[in-house]
Amino acid sequence: MRYMLxxxxxxxxxxxxKPSEEHNAAMLAYQHSLAEAGVLLAAEELRPSxxxxxxxxxxxxxxxxxxxxxFPIDPALVAEFTLINVDTEEEALDWAMRMPIPAERGxxxxxxxxRLEDKKENSRDPKLFTLEAELKDYLRL
Amino acid sequence: MSASQTHRTIDxxxxxxxAKLIAGLVRMVRDVGLAEDFAxxxxxxxxxxxxxxxxxxxxxxxxxxxxxxxxxxxxRRNKLRDQKYVExxxxxxxxxxxxxxxxxxxxxxxxxxxxIFMTCHPVLSxxxxxxxxxxxxxxxxxxxxxxxxxxxxSTVAQRIVRAKRTLNAEKVPFEVPVGKELAERLSAVLEVxxxxxxxxxxxxxxxxxxxxxxxxxALRLGRIxxxxxxxxxxxxxxxxxxxxxxSRLRTRINAKGExxxxxxxxxxxxxxxxxxxxxxxxxxxxxxxxxLGPYAIQASITACHAVxxxxxxxxxxxxxxxxxxxxxITPSPIVELNRAVAIAMAFGPxxxxxxxxxxxGEPSLQGYHLLPSVRGDLLEKLGRLEEARTEFERAAAxxxxxxxxxxxxxxxxxCLQEGG
Lengths: 141, 420
Hints:
The complex is a heterodimer.
Chain A: E1 2-8, H1 11-14, H2 21-36, E2 40-45, E3 53-56, E4 65-68, E5 78-85, H3 89-98, E6 111-115, H4 129-139
Chain B: H1 3-29, H2 32-53, H3 59-77, H4 83-94, H5 100-119, H6 126-136, H7 142-148, H8 153-169, H9 180-201, H10 210-228, H11 233-246, H12 272-287, H13 294-307, H14 316-329, H15 333-347, H16 349-359, H17 370-381, H18 385-398, H19 402-418
């Protein structure tokens, strides 16, 4: 199962204040261990919201409002994400908890863990073959 | 109305109408110099007749008709029975005096737009673009232009003559560029307006009335441009920037004529109408849905100050973020320095100092006194007074401005006292 670890924006990320060397080194080591464990799919940093555009459809309106950033710093704003592929939710949470945070900063820091929707594969489970047969009976196929 | 009153009124009319007049004439004669001559002729006739006859109901149309007649007279006299003449004759036949203004209304804005693209054409030097734009679109005299840029009148006159000649020689067309060229050319136009505004704004002495005039004219051109090119975000961005900056014009200088820093200004005296107009223009720029350009970002920064009731209400994090955005589009050590200050205000002096220290290797900032000034300020805030003093002294030695030197020396001395 795939999980996205979303690091939320704060003043530092929006103003792009560089993290300390220590933090960068810790982050690199973290990503390295993700890769070594074979769980890392992607890890990207987003530009601040000043480089973003929001398209909002007000209720009942067909015409969207297209608004250039920057946007207010709130929990909706994402700064970076790491995409991992793990076997259990515990494992995903474990990785998220191990993500280094820039300790020297005063701002609050939030990581949101979200599971990605599994791709609807056309997997034919042998256990369900009887059900398929029933469907075919019904359809007189 | 006395003769002098009439003359003053004619002055005002001229300032309002001359750009349209010249633009309309350029459309016919395709020559900026000729068009200006005909417009001037019409003005001379007006100055002669209006004190007697009174000012006509529609002075703009009157001037236009008169200028066109002059054009025809002259071309006839010169027996210039070429295509140009035929075209002008047709134009004149088309309209009677009364409906000329109405008929032109739709086209007039297009003509103005074409004219500004002509006067801001890249074949001209930056100085020439500014001078010619002030002359033809703002109706300023050569003397007024010279005084506002603190240059000799003869220099400006020569610049304008040469610019007109260049436009003719290069056969610069009277048209609004399209497609990819529009974006490039529009940025040249905006740059001229921005330069014009800044020239007026950065003047510290309020003595010379032509300098605030530059701000007004730039703002006026910007508003016209926003009305005729409404889908370009940067036009609105620039207008927003100018509106908001203008809101502080009154508070920037105290009774003694000394500059007052932004943080010390009386915010109650800021012009709220201009601030509102600026915020509206900025909102307009953002709603066009493209990421903000340099003017809109600068406008957003000034907007942060404009909406803060007191200096301590200022949203420094947002300002720091905006400087970062500006830096990404227009990388410059000066913007870096501004960003460092904003970051110091938002997150503490240590963060700002880190950035300033990185700038010390920057060759373009060597000898730039504001770099050690900022470093001194941050060191002082961190309580590193001895180092702060050294920086202030370095900065004082670098600046050529007497007033700044005195202030920097004062700050250096204060560090010495505080440190015991």
